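Continuing the series of single-chain predictions for the mutant panel. This is the parent chain; the variants come on the following pages.
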Amino acid sequence: MNAATETRFWLVRHAVVTENARAMLYGTLDVELCPHSLAAQVPTYEALARRLPQGAAWVVTPLSRTRRTAEAIFRAGYPRATWTIEPSLIEQNLGDWQGLPHAELPGRLTQPAHAFWPLSGEERPPGGESMAEVIARVGAGLERLAAAQAGRDVVVVSHGGAIRAAVAHALGIGSDNALHMSVHNLSLTQLERHAAAWRVVSVNETMTG
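Parent structure:
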């Protein structure tokens, strides 16, 4: 019997979205995955299917790109599981700027852009949320999941911004520091919730077939 008391989170960023979606700020828009990448990256899905722990609880977000990524992992060999939908782990809501071509964003910013993200960590788009708010939202969601799934493995298929926020919550770092982290599509990030504190096991682990 597994005597572990920590809750182990396996965070997978969804697959690459279509070229048209990548040309704009898509945030929480429900954009499609790139069909060519889905076909070409079958070995990556197979590697994830081998790497992720069996018997885990599965969590996706309300956006279809996370569900389609989970389905691809199941097709690649992971035993099919029933997932739950967790809205708190969705991508950053960019409000009125969603759908805007990247080139049109700079003139709308109220703060200098981050070196590795179009917005600073404290920039709040009209009708949207700042990265600092994402960290608070995601952190609260992770704490609820850790309590509900205590001692279990939890696979979460989520988004780049939300995974950065999860690591930021675990480390207790600010939003601009969180944006320095690289989180590639189909990468794996591992966090553990122990009784006393969070532990970061790995960030942006890339899978090879």
